Amino acid sequence: MQKLLVANWKMYLSDREAAALARAYLREAGSAPCRLAAAPSYTALAAVGEALAGSPVALAAQDVFWEARGAYTGEVGVESLSALGARYVIVGHSERRAIFGETDELIGRKLSAAARGGLVPILCVGETREEREAGARDEVVRRQLAGGLANLPEEAECLIAYEPRWAIGTGTPCDPGEAARVHRMIHAALEETFGATRDASFAVLYGGSVDASNVAGFAAEDAVDGFLVGGASADEKKFIGLLQALRV
Ligand code: PGA
What is the distance in A from the centroid of ligand 1 to the CA of 246? Predict the structure, then answer.
């Protein structure tokens, strides 16, 4: 299967810019060397979802709340995201963990609600620089997997994104060989918990400073099923460059 590129537009774009970028994605989609999904901010989901409807570019949300409805000021539930055509939802992004204090337990609730509601969660895991230097990378990733997937419904599709925090937005990605080793460790942990057949159903993406200059190195690794791209996905020229780099 072709690799999957999930574009995380974070809070980089106005709604109008997001809709324009979605149209650029559509122009590229027919000849793209990978599958595509775009994650605009909440307020742009409707416009981007409309632009992408019926196209090969899937719609993704950047976050979700675990309750279906109720007195939860500022939150957005699964039903609203589905109604706008979302197929994927990112959960546990390191910016949510670091800036908003999201814990593994809370991320697990979001992931479970998303999967039960028919969305495909993309669980982000990854260590900080300090954790890496202390030799705790694998332990941290395993803990985040266990917490995030604690209540994953059987049969539900779910993706994992390995995003070392020190590589996000820094221009310094993980070495592709090292990322592939972590991806294999992730599969070993999933196999231990869920068994070999279920483990094989988890695609594992790499994220953290992926751009046109390095994406081919990640694409060459069998253990890398795709990419979660921030900065380089939120700019039309850089995005076209990414696709170009994947073609050669
Ligand atoms: P980056 O972000 O590509 O800008 O490093 C990746 C992410 O945070 O998902």
Answer: 18
Q: Name the residues annotated as catalytic.
A: 93, 163
CA angle 229–80–147, rounded 5-degree value: 55
With a Cβ cut-off of 6 Å, ligand 1 is lined by 8, 163, 168-169, 207-210, 228-232
- Span 105-116, pLDDT tens digits: 999 999 999 999
| For ligand 1, mutation pick of 8, 205, 214, 238 (most atoms within 8 Å of CB) | 8
In three-state form (DSSP H/G/I as H, E/B as E, the rest C), the secondary structure along 176-243 is HHHHHHHHHHHHHHHHHHHCHHHHCCCEEEEECCCCCCCHHHHHCCCCCCEEEECHHHCCHHHHHHHH
Q: What is the pTM of this model?
A: 0.98
Query: Ligand 1 centre and the CA of 70: distance in Å?
Result: 32
